[in-house]
Amino acid sequence: MNRNDDADWRPDAPSADLAAGLDALAGGRLAEAAHRLAAAPENADDPHAAYRLGVVQSLSGDPAAAIATWRRVLRMDAQFAPALYDLALAYLAADDMGQAMLAFTRLLGACPDHAEGRFNFGNLLFRLGRTEEAVAAYAPLTGGENPPRGVLVNLGRALRRQGRLEEALACYGRALLADPADHFTWWNRSHALFLMGRWAEGFTDWEHRLFIGKGPPFKPALPRWTSGGPPPTLLVMGEQGHGDALHALRWLPPLLDRRCRPTLALHPALVPLARALLPGIPVLPFDRAASADAEAWSPLFSLPSRLDLPAPADTAEPAACPLCAPGIAAIRAAAGGAGPRPRIGLVWAGNPEHDNDRWRSMPLSALAPLFAAMPDAAWIGLQTGAAAAQADAFPRLSCAEPPADFLESARRVAGLDLLITVDTAAAHLGGCLGVPTWMLVAAEPDWRWGLKSRRTPWYASLRLFRQIDLGDWSAPVAAAAEALRAWMPEPRS
C-alpha cells in the first residue's frame, strides 16, 4: 500500500473546495490544489482529505508542511497507512532516522503486509547497521516465483555484510534469472565473488560497472579495447577513487611485457606520483587525455580481465615491481624522516563522499589507546580534509600543511616507521611504497580485503586489524595497541 492505493478515494458529496482541490491535484496544478484543499471543510476531520493536502505540500517542495499535515492526519486516525508510509519517507529524506523508525514501526504494526513499507524499513535498518534485522525485514518479501528485484539485490547486500556470501549469490542469481541484463545486480555480485577470492569471475562481473556510471569520468573518442591482445598503443583511463587508482597501477607493467605502449590518464593529484612510480609510461591528467598517442582505450580496472591476470599473485605490487624500484628509491631519498623515532603516521577518515564512509572512517578520539601504548613515539598526523581539524584536541599529534599532491604525500609516508590508517588512499600509498602499514578495517570490508585474513595478497607490507561488530572500533584499536607494545621499528637503510 502507498499513497496511490488511496488515489481513487472521493466522497459521495464533496464540498466545492474539496472537489476542485482533487481535480487540481489530478491535473498537476499544485498551487490551486493546495489552496482549495486547505479551504475544504473536510480537511479538518477527514483523514483522506487532509492526507491529500500533505501530498500536495510534499509535491510542492514543502516537506515540513507535509510532515505537519500527515501528523495531523494520524491524530484523526492513528493507523492511516498512506500517511504513516509517506511520513516515514519524509523523515528519511530529512535524515531524521529516529522519527522514520517510529513511523515505519507504526506502519508495519498496523499493516504487516505493506510491501513498500517493509522494503524501505529494511533499507533503513541496513543503513543504520542493524543488518540482522534488515535481513529479517526483507525475508518475507522474497516468497513467490518473482520477488521484486530491489528486494533480492538489497537482501543480497545485507547477507554480504554478514559474510553469508553463498546466500548473497543466490539472491543475485534469482534477480538475474528475471533480468539477465541487470547491470547493477551483476556489479553487486562481483563484490561477493571478490570476497570469496573468485577473482576471474569477479572481474568479469565487475565490467558491468561501466553501464551504471561507476567507470572512468568520461569515455575518450577512441574505440575501446574489448577483445584479443592489447593494441600497440593504448590509453588507460583511471577510475574510482584515488586509492583504487593506486591499487591498479600494478596492471600497467604487464602491458609493456605484451609489447603495448600504454598512456595512463589520472586525476591531476595522482599524476606526479604515477610518473615517479612508472617512469616508462606516459601519465597525463584527465584534461589532457585527448592528446594521448593511442589506437584504443581501456578503463584501468578492466585490465585484469583483458589481460587474463585476475588473481592478486599474478602481478607484482609496485613495491615489488622492478619498473617502480627507481621511483620508490627516489621517494625514500627525498622523504622527511629526521627527528625522534619511531615515527608513526595516523589517518582516521576517508573521503566523506564515499558511499561507505560512515563505516570505514572513525573519530580521532577512537585512536587514543594507541598514544597510550607507545607514549614516546613521534606521532604524525597525515589526515586531510575536514576531519583533520580533530587533531587540534591532540597536541601530541604533529600535523603539517596539506600536501600539494600524492607525490608529496608519498614522501611523508616514506619517512615513517609505521603508518596506521583506515581503509582509504593512505593505505594503498603505504602499500605501494612498501612502508609497514596497519589498516583498521570495518566489519563490512571493501572487496579487496576478504573477510578474515590479517594479511592481504595485494600488499606485502599491509597488516589488517578487523572490527568484530560493525561501527565498533574498540576491538581493532585494542588489537593494534597491543601489537604496538610488542612492535619495533625496522632499521633504516
Can you offer a commentary on this structure?
The chain is an alpha/beta fold and 493 residues long. The chain has four domains: 3-128, Tetratricopeptide repeat domain (Serine Threonine Protein Phosphatase 5, Tetratricopeptide repeat); 144-206, Alpha Horseshoe (Serine Threonine Protein Phosphatase 5, Tetratricopeptide repeat); 233-315, 3-Layer(aba) Sandwich (Rossmann fold), CATH 3.40.50; 332-486, Rossmann fold, CATH 3.40.50.2000. Helix content is 44%, strand content 10%. The strands form two sheets. Strands 7-6-5-8-9-11-10 form a seven-stranded mixed sheet. Helix 21 (425-433) links the parallel strand 8 and strand 9 (437-441). The longest helix is centred in the N-terminal third of the chain and has 14 residues, at 63-76. The model has no long low-confidence stretch (mean pLDDT 94).
Question: Which labels suit this protein?
Answer:
single chain; 493 residues; alpha/beta; Serine Threonine Protein Phosphatase 5, Tetratricopeptide repeat; Rossmann fold; 4 domains; 7-stranded mixed sheet; 4-stranded parallel sheet; 11 strands; 10% strand
Short description:
With 493 residues, the protein is α/β, with parallel strands linked by helices. Helix content is 44%, strand content 10%.
Layout: helices, strands, pairs:
Elements: H1 16-26, H2 30-39, H3 47-59, H4 63-76, H5 81-93, H6 97-110, H7 115-127, H8 131-138, H9 149-161, H10 165-178, H11 183-195, H12 199-206, E1 233-237, H13 242-248, H14 253-257, E2 261-266, H15 271-277, E3 283-285, E4 296-299, H16 303-307, H17 325-333, E5 343-347, H18 357-360, H19 368-373, E6 378-381, E7 397-399, H20 406-414, E8 418-422, H21 425-433, E9 437-441, E10 455-456, E11 459-466, H22 474-486
Parallel strand pairs: 1-2, 1-4, 2-3, 5-6, 5-8, 6-7, 8-9, 9-11
Antiparallel strand pairs: 10-11
Helix pairs in contact: 1-2, 2-3, 3-4, 3-5, 4-5, 5-6, 6-7, 7-8, 8-9, 9-10, 9-11, 10-11, 11-12, 13-21, 15-20, 20-21
